[in-house]
Each structure stands twice: as C-alpha cells, then as structure tokens.
C-alpha cells in the first residue's frame, strides 16, 4: 500500500467480499443542523473500523513510529464516479509537521492571521522555556538542600532539648519533695533555670546561623518565583490573543457549500486549543471541498497508551466532546440521508432467559458507558439500540469487566433481578475464574496473593498496594503452563477490586499481565490485554438452579 496516496481504493485495506458484508454500525457521529435543527448522523461501521486497523498495521509494517500515541481517522467516501474510496487523517501534528504527504491537509487559515498565530506560538514557547529555566535554577536546589539540612539539625536539637527538659522536670519534682531538709535547694533551682535558658539560646543561635545562610538564597528564589508569576500572566494574555486569532483564522466548509469561521461556529469567546486539528473535522472539511460523499468514518488510537490511560492502541473513539462535537452539526449539513442497516449488538450471547443475559465481551469494549461522549460505546448501549428487542430496554450490568478484559459479563433485565444478583456478588457467592498470561516464569505452582488495593486520587485510573488506605484484596492463582518466558495462569478473585488481577500479578508475582498498557512495559505492542473471564458459577436468583458458564480463552 502506498501511504503517500491521499485517495485510496477500499480494497487496498479489505477484501472485496467484505465491503458489502460489514455494514453493522457501532456508533453514530451526530449533530444538529444550525439552520434546520434537524439531527444529522454519519455512522462508524465495522468496515470503517477494519480499514482503520489495517492502516495502523501498515504503519507498523513500515516501521513508522511516533514518540507518543496518535489519533488516526479514516473516512469512506464516494467519488464523482460513485466508487468507494478512503481518505485518512491524523490529529494535531506529526513529528512537528502540520502536513504529511498522502494525508488530508490541515484546515487552511488566513495567511496573515496564520503568521500572527505562528509568532504568538513562538512567544508562548519562549515563555514556556523561560519558566522551565526559572523553575530549575541551581540556587533553588541549593536552597532546598540547605533548608532540608537545617530542618534535620533543628529537629535533632529539639529532641535533645526535649530529653533535657524532661530530666529537669523530674529533678524539680524531686527537689520540691526535699525542700524542707536541704538548704541548697534554691541554688539548684537556679542551675536548672540556667540550663533551660541555655537551651533556648542554643535554639535561637541555630536559627540565626541558618537564617544568615538561607535568607540570601530565599530572596533569589522569591525573585525567580515572582518572575514566573509575571511570565504566566504574559502567557495568559498571549493565549487570549491566540484565541482571538483562531476565531477568525480558520474557516470550515460543509456539504451545503457554506463556509464559516471557527469562532462564529462555536459562538463563544474561548475556543479550546486544537479545535479543528482533530481527525473528524479535517476529514469532513476535505470531503466537502473535494466533492466526496462520506459513507462512514472511524477514529482509532495508534501507538502508546495516552498518559492518563484513557486512549489505548487499537481502540475506537467518537468525536471529542470539547473540540469536535460542537462542530459536527455544521460539518454534516448538506449530506444526504443514509439508509444504513441498524446496528445489532454484535456480541456473542452464551446464556439468556427471562431474567438474565450473559455475553462474551470482547477486549476493548466498555461494560457500561463512562463520562463523556468518547465513552458511549459499551455492552449496555449496543443491546439497548436494537429496535426489536423490547426486553433489552432496561438491560443493566450487575458487575463489570475492565475495558481491556474479555470474557463473561452478566446483565439483568429487571430491577428485582438486579437487586438479587447484586446481593449474590456482595455476599461473594459468585465464583469467577479468569485466565491470564504473565510476562515471566512463576515459580510456585499455586498460591494466594493478599495485598490491599487503593485508588490513589492523584494517579487514576491506576490502583496501588497501600497498607494504610487499601481495601482487603485476595486472589488465588494456579499455574496452567510455563512456556517461552511466559506463564499461563488460572486466577480466582475472592474480592472484586478495580484492576485487582492486574495489580496482584504485578505486585504479588512481580510480573505484569501480557499486553497491560497501564501497569506493563510501555514498549509492548500487543493487540490486547491477555486476561479473560473464562468461567462463572452462581445460583440463579429465581430458579435456584446452579448456573456454570464457560467460554474459550481467545489467546
């Protein structure tokens, strides 16, 4: 495949027979037309997802790498001849470049304003490096080290004086008891008082000595901090200028042939940084200005997991809520109505009755929707959108699997069943058996991992072992197979903490689960997390029969 070509044939990515067999919709890009207020949609289909993943595979094959992960987008379009084609885009910059041959260009801007924006960005960069330099001046480290040394000396002296004070207190009490029989008592009291004053003087002297050393350094640090505050004020003002420039700099065109600036589209003073730089706006603007009709679009994360853990390689994401979603109504305006086959859940059902629905969840799909539009696609949503499935309207998960974990997931069809199943889970009367592959050779054939887990608010979504704040967390493990410096394990969680098995393998066994992009090695380029909920055993809340469900481990 020639990645330097902008307009690709669909069969560059997939087999021809797949083109008309993969119309299942997994998500809808949507917005409201600013003029008619009509709801407009553009689907993400299985076909568009396959094309996006093939694009990622081609980049990997050509050993094209990014220091950090990158959002990539593909748009299936019809050209003037009615043939299906594919265009591709990347979000933001690629190695510092706005444009790369073969990829959709950045949305063009007014040249004069673009130059002003460039100068403003240069000034912002200068300020950033000035702040970094001031934050790392040598005197700051020198001051911190000496301040620490002073505190150590101060605490050490205080402890000595506290011991002396206690000794003097005891001596005074003894002297008071012998005051009638001893004529030298008053002199001894004076000596104790002198010792007390001597300790006070020693503390004051230590403070004064260190103040003479620290104050000049502290003054220099304070001056640097003041300069940092001034620079941050300048940065804030320049950012305001940049926002004002952006309001008129970038114009977008829709399929009705209308062009409007980003500022007039959003209708607000503050425009989020990067607006118009994401894949979806770039793809739709390019299609609208090149007489291409969109059919389906997909945006996929490629590369290392994002620092906050929210973006994972090979996972698909909708239009971002702050920058892209507000533009979708305008960008989709003028498109013809699509008659695309309604989405089915497209998930394997392994058990169903009047009360329960049990599915085999794939890796990469959420159990329930999260906060934000990019967390919408999930097991619950996929079943609820099936128009003929009335029994799925109130479907609700009774427990959860991590997005990266595959396997058995139980959903209930009514509130009564939800309550009863929740009670079973709370009472630990549901046995869950997982299978995992860890990076390394586990020595013990079986064992128990008992490590308390805590979700540190400063490092979410990561969990950590913490004996002070952590909740009791217990996992039983058994070795299934050792092979090629990897161990296949059977894991039985007794408790059900977030990321329990992932952290217990890492901290309890000293080995991360293969493909774990949160707790494992950053350089791993696995297609998934090697953790699967293989079996589940519980008593049916209505029939009281034992339900034992098993799935095949997909790795």
From TrEMBL:
Segments forming a coiled coil: 168-248
Domain Pseudouridine synthase RsuA/RluA-like: 355-506
Family matches, as CDD domains: PseudoU_synth_RluA_like
Keyword Coiled coil: yes
UniProt xrefs under PROSITE patterns: PSI_RLU
Keywords from the named record: Coiled coil
MF GO annotations: catalytic activity, acting on RNA; pseudouridine synthase activity; RNA binding
InterPro entries, alphabetized: PsdUridine_synth_cat_dom_sf, PsdUridine_synth_RluA-like_CS, PsdUridine_synth_RsuA/RluA, RluA_PseudoU_synthase
Pfam families assigned to the protein according to its UniProt record, in alphabetical order: PseudoU_synth_2
Keyword Coiled coil: yes
Transmembrane feature ranges: none
GO biological process: enzyme-directed rRNA pseudouridine synthesis
PANTHER family: MITOCHONDRIAL RNA PSEUDOURIDINE SYNTHASE, RIBOSOMAL LARGE SUBUNIT PSEUDOURIDINE SYNTHASE A
Record-given protein name: RNA pseudouridylate synthase
Native source species: Cyanobacterium aponinum (strain PCC 10605)
